[in-house]
Amino acid sequence: MVVVNAVDLLKKEIPVxxxxxCIHDGVITxxxxxxxxxxxxxxxxxxxxxxxxxxxxxxxxxxAVKLSKVFCEKKWPVLAFLDTHxxxxxxxxxxxxxxxxxHESDLVPALQWLEKESNVTIRRKDCYDGYIGSxxxxxxxxFVDWVKNNNIQTLLVxxxxxxxxxxxxxxxxxxxxxxxxxxxxxxxxxxxxxxxTFDFSESAARxxxxxxxxxxxxxxxxGLYMAKGRGAKIAKDVSFGALx
Length: 244
Prior knowledge:
The protein has 7 helices and 7 strands, in the order αββααββαβαβααβ. By secondary structure, the chain is α/β, with parallel strands linked by helices.
């Protein structure tokens, strides 16, 4: 009897084509970091934080730090979204998480230095989608203005969760680009190793109110597949070089 691994079957039936991406100095490129905060990434930091050491989450943080250092050295634009919710305003179907004023909604320790960098914009959001979460009461959009004011042509996206907040942001951004709302933006690149999602087993989900089963490897693949299907480039590695 042949036993087929569900993840292997998924990757065979709906493969995700990844590519090597070189960021050229002549193309204005910006880095978007999505929710790399304690409440999602730091061991035991909250209801949606890892409950045990997670290699994929650690790799994502490591890659995000590497990219952040390069962008800050070059003084290229960086935008960091921080999931931040007001008490009593739940985000169904997830349990309470990343409340305003708590350490859950702060950048992970390895990235807290970004708050002091002049090229970095910090945006707290109270919803999955950073694009929607950037809308101000007067109707303006902090993210849209950031893209236009910096003449951004390419966005490089990293963070969590690949299939939730990263995906929602990427989909909205690509739709806005397609409608001509984000000139001169051309490409949105999702860096697979710079993204991660959480892992909730069926038993863990049963023990947590409002939580859903969430197999990490399957949902990571699905997030990348859906982003690719909406028009994003999926990068397996990222390098930097002069435009020839």
